[in-house]
Amino acid sequence: MKLRRWAAGVGGRRRQGLRRVFERRGYERETAVVILKCAAAATLALAVGTLLMDTQQIGFAPFSALLVVRPSVYGSVLQSGRYVAAVVAGALIAGVGGLTVGPELWVFAALVLLALVLGQAAVFGSQGAQIPVVAAFALAGGTAGSPGDLGSLLAMVMVGAGAAVVTNLVLAPAVRFRDAENAVLDFADGLRQFSREVADGLREGNEGLALERWARVADGFDDTARNARSAVAKQEDRARLNPRRILGERGPQGSPDTYRAWISALSRASRHLQSVVRTLRHSTGSRSRYPAPDDAFLRGFAPLMDRAADAFRAVRDAEEPARSSVSDDLRACLDAGTSGVARVREELGADWDRDRWPVYSALLTDLERVFDELTEGQENSTREGG
Q: Which of 83, 150, 221, 234 has its CA at 20 to 30 Å from residue 204's CA atom?
């Protein structure tokens, strides 16, 4: 029974993954496309290699194609160059021993050791591992003792790498940055939800402070920023060397620099929200030098957090990264937020609480900086886009 349930669960997950391949873009569809590219590149490499020459090294053609197919044209070209360089280096090392000393065990050990050391060079990237593989294969298989066999091996490697690049060119991905834009908008939406949750808790005074949970969520925005930057870099790679751009395909509205500017702005804003939570934790802790904020201040601070949530919502709803100028909605939210902070400062100045003022001032300053970061994010993205 357990085995049957496990098999049914695996089958269900596979069916869901297959359905997602056809229904929407994402990891499943990208994996399916890469699998298709690998099969096409390997078949093309074998066909071309067979037509070019009759050699026992023919297996290196499809093998090489499989190793350098990537989702993007740029990635495939980069890996092809590194792979070919690594294979040439491995073949040369093998040839040095095979064509001079011969198939001696000590020669094999010394040359493989040299290949392993050379493979650590950063210029080869992950393809550096191919240097000792090719050297060991050529030495152990006898290829290293024949200039003709070494030449055939290198020729098949070139065919395989070329087939991979051609396949990537033919099946080049669309030139779009929608995934990058979604990463920015999702970041803004996460900050919106968090700000709203904090505002709801503050309305209940000290009893509504879920500080441990808020701290965990706020710290998690560092990972969100990292993932968003990774999404932008990934989409940027898709656009490099992409033939669809040469053929005149309409490009994305935004740009990598625009998205990076917004990610930086949202990341800085998230750190100010982290600081808000830290200030609340420290001031309400038993070791604090200052009295905890009273309920009246916390309830008055809640609408300011709502203003921050509104500003993040405006970034998402107006799709600010794709705009050339700030939306009226975001401008109104930022104006309301900064004026709200100024008004609370003025009220606190009129009703002076010397003991709690350092805490109140720190909280207001951090929130004011949130609005400043969003303003700067729009200004930076406008400059980058213009």
A: 221
pLDDT in tens, 294-322: 888 999 999 999 999 999 999 999 888 87
- Cα–Cα dist 133/140, whole Å: 11
Contact between 64 and 156 (Cβ < 8 Å): yes
Task: Read off the DSSP letter of residue 120.
Answer: T
Whole-number Å distance between alpha carbons of 328 and 335: 10
Task: List the structure tokens of 303.
Answer: 């609408």
What whole-number distance in Å separates Cα of residue 170 and Cα of residue 151? Answer: 28
Gap between the terminal Cα atoms of the chain: 63
Residue pair 96/196 in contact (Cβ under 8 Å)? The answer is: no
Tell me which residue has tokens 């095979």. Answer: 98
Asked if 154 contacts 112 with a C-beta cutoff of 8 angstroms, the reply is no
- What is the C-alpha radius of gyration for the chain, rounded to an integer number of angstroms? 30
**CA 204 to each of CA 274, 279, 340, 345, 356: distance values in angstroms, whole numbers, following the listed order:** 20, 18, 20, 21, 19
- Name the phi and psi angles at 385, rounded to 5: -75, -25
- Which residue is it, tokens 């702005």? 265
Is residue 6 scored above 50 in pLDDT?
Answer: no
Confidence of residue 332 (pLDDT cuts 50, 70, 90): very high
pLDDT band at 334 (very low <50, low <70, confident <90, very high): very high
Place of tokens 């996460």: 190
Q: What is the rounded distance in angstroms from the CA atom of residue 143 to the CA atom of residue 92? A: 11
| DSSP codes of every residue in 249-271 | ----SS-HHHHHHHHHHHHHHHH
C-alpha–C-alpha distance, residues 28 and 21, integer Å? 5
Q: What six digits make up the tokens of 167?
A: 């396949």
What is the per-residue pLDDT across 163-196, written as a single tens digit (0 to 9) for each?
A: 999 999 888 877 666 778 888 999 999 999 999 9
354 secondary structure, DSSP code: T
The pLDDT value recorded for residue 252 is 46
Burial class (CB within 10 angstroms; exposed 0-12, middle 13-18, buried 19+) of 235:
buried
Determine which helix (DSSP H) or strand (DSSP E) holds 238, and give its type and residue range: helix 221-239
